[in-house]
Amino acid sequence: MAESPNPRVLRIGILGFGTVGSGAYRMLHDNREEITRKIGLSYEVVRIGIRDSEKTRALPKTMFTTDLLSIVDDPEIDVVLELMGGVEPAGDLVERAIMNGKHVVTANKELIAKHGSRLVALAKSQSLDLHYEAAVGGGIPLVQPLKHQLAGNDVLKMMGILNGTTNYILSKMKSEGSDFSVALAEAQAKGYAEADPTNDVDGFDTAYKISILASIAFGKQVPVAGVYREGIRTITKIDMQYADLLGYCIKLLGVVEPRGQGCVLARVHPTLLPNAHPLASVNGVYNALWLHGDFVGDVMFSGRGAGSDPTASAVIGDFIDVGRNMLAGGCGSAIPYGIGIETAPISELVTSYYLRIQVQDRPKVLGAIATVFGEFDVSLAAMEMKTLDGGRGEIVFLTHPCVEKSFCDALHQLESSGTIEVVCNWFRVEG
Ligand code: NAP
Ligand code: HSE
Question: Greatest CA span in the chain, whole angstroms?
Fold first, then answer.
């Protein structure tokens, strides 16, 4: 049983044998000697839970079961690796495994983002570990550094490229001038994006991940519902080109910053980043987290944020931690976080904005736009203009930092008065 301070052999049950599950199994197999030496105990995979018993697998059929309860209820199993995904039945299975005295390692960002506070507290109350390093940033160590090495800092801001699929798409749009739909099809063909890419492309995946990181950094569960979210479907080649002209790239960022005591502003949206920012050079399926702490200053972690091998690396790192803790007779790495943090609305954000509009190309239009922005305390910082057919013009502005509500109100007034014919696009800018 898991409580045993010195089991002879660690017995593992795996839930899921897809991209991550098969990678974790392979790492346990290929690096057995090293992993055994590092834990100080041998281990064996007892059984693997799957959904489809007809699929061809690289292991004997006897290793697999579609009865996942038989794994979490097996008194011989010490550690469950939950690598199946989704909230249900994964959540019930994790809870049941804990109640049956098993340590759990999971890669499931949706489950941890929605139920992490409750599940980690449950594990802790049973003197068990529940680890989830693989849930954010694939193979990049982010969860453990936030829980331990950086824990003494007040985190003043975190910004992350936390989704490989969208970063791949945006990198292709920038480097090859591809349209969004072409870049998405390529990401799907390469196996980065799923057949239904909604979770990635519409920012849900990044919202889960920034919610998890923010919960650790601020010590309270940051509810997913409180994370403002926009995806990347609206970004066009034209915006990429204008951004480049102004010295910026466009990335899908998860951002969180404190807003006074007990409140954070957490958001996911396409963002213009100066080309000189360290995150701007993170391309393709790579992920990165940039953080500013009051004592540590700026730090950045980057690496492969998705895929079988990098994610397996994080899962097995957690498993080794569990093994060491079991041997030491503790569960030191399960750090519970409570609930009750407030999330500020996006309308309170103060940042700079990129705006692309179309207008009638005639006298006083530019002056009228600048006047209305000025009335709403929005100051213009840079501008690009292009003449279009039919006596019209396209203008791109960058603003100085201002309150989002003021920027939106000014834009609304300019649109409803007809001064601006078309608002083509606008994005937030990080400086
Ligand atoms: P996947 O390739 O779709 O594999 C899922 C596995 O779980 C499959 O073996 C599937 O069985 C099994 N499964 C799913 N639902 C089941 C159910 N209701 N009953 C029994 N078995 C079930 O998924 P994945 O990409 O490995 O992702 C697994 C988890 O890791 C998810 O939480 C994901 O968010 C997370 N994650 C993934 C990555 C990545 O790069 N893929 C990176 C970080 C984190 P069958 O084989 O029979 O279909
Ligand atoms: N779909 C995710 C991505 C997998 O593209 O980053 C890793 O969490």
Answer: 84
Ligand 2 contacts CB of residue 200 (under 6 A)? yes
Q: Is 108 in the pocket of ligand 2 (CB under 6 A)?
A: no
Please confirm, yes or no, whether 209 is among the known catalytic residues: yes
Sign of the Cα torsion 418, 392, 402, 222 reads: positive
Mention every residue, 6+ apart, whose C-beta is less than 8 A from residue 158.
210, 213, 214, 217, 254, 255, 256, 257, 289, 290, 291, 292
- Could you give the angle at which helices 19-30 and 32-39 cross, rounded to 10 degrees? 80
CB atoms within 10 A of CB 233: 16
| From 209, 237, 386, 405, active-site residue | 209
- Residue 10 · residue 79 · CB < 8 Å: yes
Average confidence (pLDDT) over 205-221: 97
CATH for the 348-429 domain, from 3.30.70.260, 3.60.40.10, 1.20.1730.10, 3.30.1120.10: 3.30.70.260
pLDDT tens per residue, range 50-92: 999 999 999 999 999 999 999 999 999 999 999 999 999 999 9
Cβ–Cβ < 8 Å for 246, 352: no
Answer whether 206 contacts ligand 2 (Cβ < 6 A). no
Among all ligands shown, which has an atom nearest to the Cα of 205?
A: 2
Q: b/e for 375-389, b at 16 or more Cβ within 10 A?
A: ebebebeeeeeeeee
Say if residue 5's pLDDT is above 60: no
CA of 268 to the centre of ligand 2 (A): 15
Count of CB atoms situated within 10 Å of the CB of 408: 16
CA 209–ligand 2 middle distance (angstroms): 10
Ligand 1 close to Cβ of residue 311 (< 6 A): yes
| Distance in angstroms (rounded) separating the CA atoms of residues 43 and 127 | 21
Tell me if 110 CB under 6 Å of ligand 2. Answer: no
No. of helices (H) and no. of strands (E), the chain: 14, 18
The correct CATH number of 143-305 out of 3.30.360.10, 3.40.50.720, 1.10.1040.10, 3.30.2320.30 is 3.30.360.10
What value does the mean pLDDT take over residues 104-131?
96
Burial classification of residue 286, based on how many CB atoms lie within 10 Å of its CB (0-12 exposed, 13-18 middle, 19 or more buried) = buried
Tell the residue nearest (CA) to atom 25 of ligand 1: 19
Angle 414-362-244 from CA coordinates, rounded to 5° = 70
